[in-house]
Structure formats: C-alpha cells, structure tokens
Amino acid sequence: MAITRPRHEDVAFYKEVHRLIARELHSDRRGGDRNAYRCVQRIAPLIGEQVPPLSEFKEVRCQDLSPGGFSFVCDAPPEQEDYAVELGRAPVLIYVTARVVHVSEVRVGPRVQYLAGCRFTGRLTG
C-alpha cells in the first residue's frame, strides 16, 4: 500500500467513507455532519511514509465520524500522532491516514479513559 495525500478530488472519497459507514450504523446528527459511530475499528502507528503491516493494526472503540475525521476512546493517551486507519466492515474496508489533533480525558464511572480526535490526512492505496 502507498500513501496518497488529499487532493481536491479526494473530497468525494471522504464523503463516500462517511456514506458507507453511516449507512450501516444508526446515526445521531451532531454539529451538522458528525455522526455517532460507536463500534470497533482498527488503527496502526504510521511512521514516516512506511505503511504498517496488517498485523500491526489494533482495535479501538470509535466514538464519532465525520467526512473530515473520527474519534476513538482508549485506556491511555495515544503514543503516536499519525495512524493508518481501517474503516468499515469486511468485505468493504477502506484504509486512510489520520493525525491526532486533540486528546481529552473522560470518566466512565470510576475509570479514566481518553478520547482522541483525529483528522483524516490521506488515503492508503495499493
């Protein structure tokens, strides 16, 4: 797989990501174009231009999805800034790249977790 950086024509790609996933899930409109997206997806650290092997992908609990990004909940703050992201359900999987743009501490009962908001930065092709 290779990384391609977003271009103007990639807007359609991101809209398609959003449409494909939202079609399968119950959506809750917030902020106009953000949908609740509470399910498990997979991410892997992206280091430089190196695409991680599929064995490096780990499951995360997604919180929401928009055409420009997504958020996920984790037990510790993300260790990386850039990730490869696998979205969708087999047999329809889409691979994109994303950058963590903010991290917030959240409480779930007595437990502290972290909500990481990410912006899509490209797509993986290959």
Structural write-up:
A hairpin with a 2-residue loop joins β7 and β8. Helix content is 12%, strand content 55%. The chain has one helix and nine strands; from the N terminus they run βαββββββββ. About 7% of the residues have low confidence.
Radius of gyration: 14 Å
Order of helices and strands: EHEEEEEEEE
> What helical percentage do the residues reach?
10-25%
Percentage of residues in strands: over 45%
Write down the CATH class: Mainly Beta
Q: Would you identify the CATH architecture? A: Beta Barrel
Q: Helices and strands: which structural class? A: mainly beta
- Determine the number of helices (DSSP H or I, runs of at least 4 residues): 1
Largest sheet: 6 strands, antiparallel, barrel
Distance between the termini: 4 Å
User: Residue ranges: pLDDT <50 for 5 or more in a row?
Assistant: 24-32
Question: What's the total count of β strands?
Answer: 9
Spatial order of the strands in the main sheet?
4-5-6-9-8-7
Total domains: 1
Task: Calculate the mean pLDDT score and round it.
Answer: 79
3D shape: globular
